[in-house]
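#structure-requests
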Amino acid sequence: MSSERLRNSIKDYPDFPKENIIFKDISPILADPELFSDLIKKISTYPFANDTEAFIAIDARGFIFGSAIAICLKKPLILARKQNKLPGKLIEKSYGLEYGTDKLSIQEAAIMPFNKFVIVDDILATGGTAKCVIDMLKIKKKEILALSVVIELTELGGSRNLGVPVYSELKY
C-alpha cells in the first residue's frame, strides 16, 4: 500500500463540524476495498499485533478499523462507546476534544479477562479521546501497548501526553 495513495484518498472539509476545524474524511478509504484491505493488512503487521490480547476501538469510526484489525488478527474487540450506549457495570470518564466535551464508557466485564491492549481510532487530534481510554484502562491496572490511528494531526500535539507509542499511517 502506498502512503501517497492513502493520502490522496483523504478528503478535507473545512469548517466542519464547526468553524476553524478541518475534517479529514476517511470515507474514501472505506469505499475502496483494495485500499482498505491493504491498510488493515499493513496495520496488522505492526509490532503490537502479536503482543496484544485485545483491541479497544473508540466510538464511532474507530469501530470500523478496530473490527477489521481484530478480525484479521483473530483477537477480541472491545468497544469504548459514548455515554448511555452500553449496559452493565461500566468504567466511565469525561474528556475534552477540539470542539467540545463528551464521555466514554467501557464495559468492565469486557476488559477483565485481558491485560494487554491496543487502542484503535481513525484520527488522533488533541488526544483527548485516546487519553480518556488510556486513563480508564490504567485505573483497572491494564497495560496499553499502543494507539493505532490512520491519521495523526501532529500540529495539535495529541501524542505528547499519552504515554504510549502511537502508530499512524499518515501525519498532517
